[in-house]
Amino acid sequence: MAVIVVSGTGTEIGKTVVTAALAAVARAQGRTVAVLKPAQTGVDAGEPGDADEVVRLAGEGVAAVELARFPEPLAPATAARRAGMPPVRPDDIAAAASKLDAEYDLVLVEGAGGLLVRLDDDGATLADVARLLDAPVLVVTPAALGTLNWTALTAEALRARDIEMLGVVVGSWPAAPGLAERCNLTDLPVAAAGAPLLGAVPEGAGALPPTEFRTRAATWLAPLLGGSWRP
After folding, report:
1. What is the three-state SS of the chain?
2. Which of 15, 37, 69, 131 is catalytic?
3. pLDDT of residue 231
4. Is 37 a catalytic residue?
5. pTM for the complete prediction?
6. Interval 137-146 mean pLDDT
């Protein structure tokens, strides 16, 4: 049994699609999988959220759990405060993940935005959740200019908290990468303080038919994550 926290260097960079790829590969290996979305923002009641998207892409054998939903597309702490709703707390998230960990082979905890986005007005973040769970963090990052700095800052924040950085996955690899993207592929492990580059998911992967997504997912992730991708 294992828990992996999926975070990112920002928002809208492919965390959900990477989470779905991880789930699809694990399911293809016969493992049971649960995805936990602690705080879903920007989605109204009854609309599909990120956890639902993981299930759509990875298959019905994946269990989806969402702890809190706030309608405005803001940081969880801000969205909860504006909605007049209680925020989701690290202890509650860790307890939910631990319960799932007792039932499933793999639990994927997908954060909102970047690592240090606030969950509540006390300043709790996804890093606090990872520390409570003693779980490694997989960092999803973009391919273009700026990614080395964002990745280095995230790696430094994890290192300062003595949290394991499992590695880095590029969340949307362009079909026609330019010089910056190609160089970043080489330089990302350096920016990540030695954490390995563990995959590159092609842009538009989330728009593939789910059956094709599941078939191709292993080619996007490195062997450490159950796939066949190599830089």
Report:
1. CEEEEEEECCCCCCHHHHHHHHHHHHHHCCCCEEEEEEEEECCCCCCCCHHHHHHHHHCCCEEEEEEEEECCCCCHHHHHHHHCCCCCCHHHHHHHHHHHHCCCCEEEEECCCCCCCCCCCCCCCHHHHHHHHCCCEEEEECCCCCHHHHHHHHHHHHHHCCCCEEEEEEEEECCCCCHHHHHHHHHHHHHCCCCCEEEEEECCHHHCCHHHHHHHHHHHECHHHCCCCCC
2. 37
3. 85
4. yes
5. 0.96
6. 96
